[in-house]
Amino acid sequence: MTSQPTNWLWLIPFLPLLGAAINGLIGPKMSKGLVGLIACSSIFMSFLVTLSYVLFRLPLMEENQVLLNTAYTWLSIGNFHADIAFHLDHLSAVMCMVVSGVGFLIHVYSIGYMGHDPGYSRYFTYLNLFAGAMLILVLGANLPLMFVGWEGVGLCSYLLIGFWFEDNEKASAGKKAFIVNRIGDFGFILGLFSVYYFLGKVDFLGMVHEVEGSGRDTLLKGWFDLGSFGIPSVVTVICLLFFLGATGKSAQLPLYVWLPDAMAGPTPVSALIHAATMVTAGVYMVARLSFLFSLSETASFVVALVGALTALYAATIAITQNDIKKILAYSTISQLGYMFMGVGVMAYSAGIFHLMTHAFFKALLFLCSGAVIHGLGGEQDIRKMGGLIKKMPITGWTWVIGWLAICGIPPFAGFFSKDEILWMAYSHGYRALWLIGFLGALLTAFYMTRCTILTFFGESRLAEGVHAHDAPRSMAAPLVILAVLSLIGGLVGWPHHSLFEHYLGGVFESSEAIVAAIPKPGMPAEGMLMILSICVAAFGILVGYFSYLKRPDLPGKTADAIPQVYRASLNKYYVDEIYNATVVQPILKTSDRFLWRIFDVWIVDGIVNGVAGLFRSVFAEGLRRFQSGIVNSYAVYFLLGALLVLIFMMLP
Amino acid sequence: MAESVIFYLFGGVAVIAALFMVTRHNPVSCAMSLVVVMFCLAVLFLGLHAPFVAMMQVIVYAGAVMVLFLYVIMLLNLSDEELGRTIVTPLKLFGGLVGCLFLVALVVLVQGDYGEGGAVNPSFGGVAQIGKELFSSYMLPFEIASVLLLAAIVGAVVIAQREQK
Amino acid sequence: MTVPLPQYLLLGAILFTIGAVGFIARRNAIVIFMCVELMLNAVNLSFIAVSRSLGEPAGQVFVFLVMTVAAAEAAVGLAIILQVYRLRGTINADEIKLMKW
Question: What is the interface pTM, i.e. ipTM, of the complex?
Fold first, then answer.
């Protein structure tokens, strides 16, 4: 990989940050219209800059070239070099377009959604700050800068989830998100250190260079001896460390627990951060580090396995949830699992493709749910909805498009991407993973159908006095645009003629050699699998239709038949309670009993007070007596001093 | 020879007078003893080829400063009770000890052979030479000393004023 | 000089020590002041002796200036003692403890 210099990439993250600064500093004094205008236009300009690069500059480059914009010399310590440098290749370009494009739509939506909120300017400040941080993450040309963006989006996630911080629960949700993320970040940092230790470089171009050269052998050597687990190679450990960071940021097992709670934030936040962008940072990171992951089959398998299991696991929770946002949250966790499955089986462009289509339809679904909640005056329980398709047609029909996309019905976007991942899993030899993903698709279709029917179709179960009104224009326009994208967005990934894969091919060329070596089944198998996917999606939809429209009593009876299972799923398998008991409470108790009471109060305060007390008693009170006010005593001290000087002069 | 006699005689008187000075109860006695010390030192100065300084000692120091001391003592006119008894405190004992050590240290330090000290010009230490030095090399200290005296005059007058009623 | 220099310096040292101890031992402020004068005189003697020994007139000039300063100091110091007596009614150093902690 080589690079070409360019001068204006820094504008892409800078413009939203500038918008955040303006809105943050003088926002409260500006009119709401101006705040919204600044916020939306800053991210739209980012989108335009990205678009112009994509249309005019990127096509001029060769296959494996990258545009590099070194803005500022940041860290240059000995051999460690990390600059504020942004690089744009096809992968970053896709991510940037998604982030700035979908981000822009959500900004516009927020103008309507948050119109009556007193924290209007604060909201847009945080939203722009988030966009800036995410763009830094995506465009960063080295690991430290990427980490800056990584942490930045974590921070903004905290700020935005706990946006209505006066409510303790919502504030706690924000804290939970940040803290759980932090656990993952630990893995990222260790991975960063290891990369520097073994390769000596932390910028991506340098790392690729090293790996193509002598670094490859360094990476493939064994590192620790884990006894019965064998000796993993360096690159395996590094990749697993990075993946730990990804599980935190992208809500996979075991660090997914923050995402459902994160629904406490405003719905556009959920759409942007927890559907389209921040949670996909983990997937992007794995794709960016594809040249490392492709060297370690073990690590990649772990990624794929965790992804697949998460996909299934989250789906089993989603089928019993009653809060519309929680359903979508677990759905997000599940779909992220699919993305990881994709990059885990070394089908990097498939994973990114699903990332892109998921951004479209999941943001659409979240925004529609926001419109529903907004229209119903705050109601989020789907048991209290129903029949809304007549009262909220725009919202309803755009939701339907999103629903069909996520279920995987062709020609909607979700079908192509999900199917690609499943096919890649199967063809790279991971049949078991394929099966898990297949079951997950069934459940996905089922629970999304359930959600759709209970919300929009059937009889109205609205509470007394609740009148539904459809979304206003500022909220409806993004819905329509996203619906269109969900409809046609998948076509770029038509199997065997995938423009998408072709576009991203250059980025993943170092891993292609490894992938090409795996024997693959031929076309007939692929066609069969595709038909199987469509069938299972249709089956899921039918079951849902049957259970909730035709025979509404059936779900209740099923739940009563297996009460433990039902309750386990409804209560999210009690994972939060388990974590609380095993991790949180012990830490709290240790901090309180030992660290605070003993260490801080006794030892630290003891030392500080002791030293101060020593000074007081010896120096202050002791020396005080020398000032008696009696002149004669002063004369004694003079004489004593003079005597000492004389003695000093007498010494040889 | 004569010089030695003069030295030992007047030196001894000076020391005895000094001892008197620090031990007398009556402040007037102390002042007079100090005058005796100064006269003795003036004689010693004469022996050391410093006639001008000797004259200055007598006229200014013994003649003006000590007279000023006496004026003030008389002015205060303290009676016996007001003067108080001398009390020996641990501080004074410690001071005495330090003083003795100090003296021992000084004695040790001054030992050494400094030579005979050559014959000097007869006009050494005379008014002419001192005057010449004062007005050429030491002009600045001389002027500063005059300013200092001015300040002292003004200061003394101001500080000792009675309160204006 | 037939009397060697150390002897003069010794005499000066003795006078100085007497003055220093007197300063420590006496309570009457005026007497304390006179002890200071004694110390100054002792130093003057040392200066003159060394000046003679080295043949330098600088020592004598310095003594001249010391005397000037001593005179000025005596004037101001006694004025202060007068004022203290007026304000405090006593000139015992033990009882004028204004600067005590």
Answer: 0.91
